[in-house]
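Summary of Year 1 activities. Much of the first year was spent building the evaluation harness for sequence design. The harness presents a backbone, in tokenized form, and records the residue chosen at every position. We chose the following record to illustrate the format because it has been used consistently in internal testing since the harness was completed.
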């Protein structure tokens, strides 16, 4: 699905409609849009029932969609970025190898499980999200598919959280990626000029203002691609699970997640935990406190403190959680000396992907240029930097205009 970050939402929508007509010889019925996301704090805390702070981007996936009466029923999807059209059956929904069509297909399967009857469906997909940069183009594709399907078929879940969870299930159970709720939640709940806070245990959430007139967001792509399906993410989850179990034994009480362990309790028993499990658990437990402190900082209008916490989070990923890499560390070190830099960290799974940098708005253009220059001599792949804004969450754009 790729990737021309300079295209606006309107342009993506126009192109999606054009491509729909060319591919499917008819006009689309609905248009939908869903953004990528960045994690501001709370690295690998979501599946440990902890806290997260995140934003939706103003870069997104746009889908033009329509339905058809064919037999047998099938999904047909065109991706502009990949210049590829893929089809998959909807009579019995099975994964189509490791194709990207599994993301929309998995969502449609979940929607059918929740009681909707699926006709044949056509999708024309456009995107301004940099693929492989760790901004979750896959969640954006899932949410945009769900929005389009509800727009055509009805049957929308009662709450937004149920919609995010449905898309997470598609990714967990159908695509086979054991992710938490961060990506789908952020892509759906996003609000311009606001940071999202989620308690992954109670599922209480909040949106806290971070005015774009003051703070800009710069994404720096390390050029190192990391796919969550490759096993490292699952391995980190296992360390967290083992640590949880061990701490429960040591504290002599039932513990179902690291969220239920205070820092004092952890410090009191940490010497008895296997070293690797211990380091992973320490990262998660301290990261949860950082999120709560970050929430307070945002509420009192103190982005400087939030930035410090982001830098601490990055160091913790590097030193304790083991999910950074030289390129990501280099990006953060390079950003740290630049004028206007408020704070930054790796975003998402790690081992590659991008860093998220908060920058004073009036220094953002120069910051982006200087970071790109600093990287051009050092990183193997050409460093890509994107100056972006906090955007709105997934939505139906309505009926495309007929021409
Ligand atoms: C990936 C996953 C998320 C979350 C982050 C790390 O983005 O998809 O669920 O676990 O990594 O915080």
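For this record, the design step produced the sequence shown next.
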């Amino acid at each position: 699905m790729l990737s021309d970050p300079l295209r606006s939402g309107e342009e993506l929508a126009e192109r999606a409609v054009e491509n729909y007509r060319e591919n499917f010889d008819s006009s689309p019925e609905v248009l939908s849009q869903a953004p990528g996301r960045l994690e501001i704090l709370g690295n690998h805390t979501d599946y440990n029932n902890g806290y997260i702070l995140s934003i939706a981007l103003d870069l997104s996936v746009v889908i033009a969609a329509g339905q058809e009466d064919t037999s047998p029923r099938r999904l047909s999807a065109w991706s502009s970025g990949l210049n590829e059209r893929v089809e998959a059956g909807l009579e019995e929904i099975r994964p189509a190898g490791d194709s990207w069509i599994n993301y929309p297909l998995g969502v449609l399967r979940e929607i059918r499980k929740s009681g909707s009857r699926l006709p044949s469906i056509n999708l024309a997909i456009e995107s301004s999200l940099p693929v492989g940069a760790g901004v979750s183009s896959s969640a954006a594709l899932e949410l945009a598919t769900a929005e389009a399907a509800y727009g055509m078929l009805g049957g929308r879940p009662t709450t937004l959280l149920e919609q995010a969870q449905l898309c997470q299930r598609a990714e967990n159970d159908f695509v086979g990626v054991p992710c938490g709720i961060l990506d789908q939640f952020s892509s759906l709940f996003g609000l311009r000029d606001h940071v999202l806070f989620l308690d992954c245990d109670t599922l209480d959430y909040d949106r806290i203002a971070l005015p774009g007139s003051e703070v800009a967001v710069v994404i720096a792509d390390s050029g190192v691609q990391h796919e969550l399906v490759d096993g490292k993410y699952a391995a980190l989850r296992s360390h967290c699970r083992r640590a949880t179990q061990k701490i429960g034994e040591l504290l002599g009480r039932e513990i179902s997640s690291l969220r239920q362990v205070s820092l004092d309790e952890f410090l009191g028993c940490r010497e008895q935990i296997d070293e690797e499990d211990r380091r992973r658990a320490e990262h998660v437990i301290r990261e949860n406190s950082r999120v709560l402190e970050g929430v307070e900082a945002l509420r009192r209008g103190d982005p400087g403190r939030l930035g410090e916490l982001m830098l601490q989070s990055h160091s913790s990923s590097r030193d304790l959680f083991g999910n950074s890499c030289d390129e990501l560390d280099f990006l953060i070190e390079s950003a740290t000396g630049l004028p206007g830099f408020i704070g930054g960290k790796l975003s998402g799974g790690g081992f590659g992907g991008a860093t998220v940098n908060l920058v004073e708005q009036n220094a953002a253009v120069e910051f982006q240029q200087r970071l790109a220059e600093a990287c051009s001599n050092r990183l193997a792949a050409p460093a890509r930097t994107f100056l972006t804004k906090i955007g709105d969450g997934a939505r139906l754009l309505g009926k495309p205009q007929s021409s």
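Residues 39, 43-44, 46-47, 179-180, 182-183, 228, 348-349 surround alpha-D-galactopyranose (CB under 6 Å). Quantitative recovery figures across the full test set are reported in Table 2.
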